[in-house]
Design brief:
single chain, globular, 21% strand, Rossmann fold, alpha/beta, 3 domains, Nucleotidyltransferase, domain 5, 5-stranded parallel β-sheet
Length: 466
């Protein structure tokens, strides 16, 4: 039986999670988790978790092959550069996010020596350099390249700018000692993002920089197993679940939200990104497959930021429960000082976790989704402008992350988050809510590289058994 099994692991900064799956059918055999051994060797946690799971289900772990995703060590950090914030810089940012990277900095416009100096303190793993549509601006693109190339900090640079300037920009960086990869423009036309080539280039560098370069393991076993960053695994699974396979129809448009201790991530897949009814588009059309990460919204490390961003609503919720809002700050700082803190249901901390989860979800959904606004056009009257993607008709929202999984009413937090969306936010209106209690999405993303059908079966069985 072990010949049909595969161990699929997710190396997180806190826990290493592992699922044992039948590669032919997609059936989940067992799963478990252990703390990630960041201070020693992360492969130790993998081996112990595999032994735990195999012991539970009565299987010999010998000979079981494995694949893994990783976000341990902070993942891959990217500095994204463009000419115009709403266009090329936005496209570069989306390419990095879809690759599962952490966007550390976004620069646009005319760059100066301060940007070059700032690279030293930012120390990104990769620089994604864009600017100009194909056949568009070249002079400012090349001036920006020369400015950044003057930095004493060296990291790989992915050139994804105006094709007319790409080779010259590459020569500028290479002459200053940067490793350079040239790929297609992320915004070849003003209304058309083309982020897939840059995403693939970032993913290749992830394997080289994060897996091999951050000293997470001294063994070749780790580098052999890890094939992608965890967020990309989730995005791949989201896309597969939406589209389906040759033999199985997909579930259609979908949004997933993962509320973590430090960040809140949203992944979405739509079959098309046409304009909403009665709307005119401003800015480029976003891809049908998207990821966004809110680095300031998390349940533990960023609890104080959540309070800062959503103070009015959180204080109102405390007063409705006859609780003193003044105690919120102390309880938030308790979470920061002890990120592994677990709240008990119906306690004061349990109530705050429920509210913080709602805040994280509500703010993240608002930032991920498009919006509409009324603009007066002389001699024509009002025009309703759409910016970003319209998700109002998305029928399925999947929630995951420890807080949603372990709290008694995780779906209630997601429902409350959607109910808080304003009339201008193009968020899902009445989706079905599902909780990924077994962390199936990352597992399925990995499994899809071996068998898309088995991966789809796994998600269908575990997430939507009815």
């Amino acid at each position: 039986m072990s010949n049909n099994l595969i161990a699929l692991a997710d190396f997180g900064s806190t826990f290493t999670k592992l699922s044992l799956v039948d590669v032919n059918s997609g059936r989940l055999i067992g799963n478990g988790q252990r703390p990630t051994c960041i201070d020693t060797d992360v492969i130790d946690g993998y081996r112990k978790t595999l032994e735990d799971v195999c012991s539970t289900v009565g299987i010999n772990p010998e000979g079981i092959k494995g694949l893994a995703a990783s976000s341990a060590g902070g993942g891959l950090s990217v500095a994204a550069i463009g000419l115009v914030e709403d266009y090329t810089a936005s496209a570069a940012r989306q390419a990095a996010l879809n690759a599962g990277a952490r966007v550390q900095k976004i620069w646009s416009g005319r760059l100066n020596a301060a940007c070059s100096t700032a690279l030293n303190s930012l120390a990104p793993d990769v620089m994604l350099f864009s600017g100009g549509t194909d056949g568009g601006h070249t002079q400012q693109v090349l001036e920006n390249a020369a400015t950044l190339a003057g930095s004493s900090y060296k990291c790989p640079v992915i050139i994804a700018c105006n094709s007319a300037a790409a080779e010259v920009a590459a020569e500028i960086f290479a002459a200053k000692g940067f490793e350079v990869v040239v790929t297609a423009n992320v915004l070849p036309e003003i209304d058309n993002m083309n982020i897939e080539p840059a995403r693939e280039a970032i993913n290749r560098l992830f394997v080289e920089q994060v897996i091999l370069g951050k000293g997470l393991s001294n063994t070749s076993e780790f580098s052999d197993k890890v094939i992608m960053p965890t967020p990309e695994a989730v995005l791949i699974a989201t896309d597969l679940f939406s589209k389906g396979t040759e033999s199985s129809a997909g579930v259609g448009d979908i949004m997933t939200i993962d509320i973590g201790g430090a960040t809140t991530d949203i992944h979405s897949a739509k079959r098309e990104t046409a304009l909403g009814r009665g709307l005119s588009m401003h800015g480029p059309s976003y891809p049908t497959l998207m990821r966004s990460v809110q680095g300031d919204l998390g349940m533990r490390w960023n609890a104080d930021n959540v309070l800062k961003e959503d103070t009015v609503w959180l204080e109102e919720m405390f007063r409705e429960r006859d609780l003193d809002p003044k105690i919120m700050r102390d309880t938030c700082y308790k979470r920061i000082s002890d990120p592994h803190f677990l709240a008990t249901t119906n306690s004061l901390d349990g109530i705050l976790d429920q509210l913080l989860a709602t805040s994280c979800a509500a703010l993240s959904i608002q930032r991920h989704c498009g919006s509409s606004r009324a603009v007066y056009v002389p001699n024509q009257g009002l025009d309703i402008i759409q910016e970003g993607t319209d998700f109002r008709d998305v029928p399925l929202l999947v929630g995951t992350g420890g807080v949603l999984i372990h709290m008694e009413n995780g779906i209630d937090a997601l429902e409350a988050a959607l109910s808080r969306q304003g009339t201008t936010t193009l968020a899902p209106k009445s989706p079905r809510f599902v909780l990924d209690t077994q962390y199936i999405l990352a597992t399925a993303g990995l499994l899809s590289t071996v068998s898309p059908q088995a991966a789809f079966n796994l998600m269908k069985t575990e997430l939507m058994p009815d």
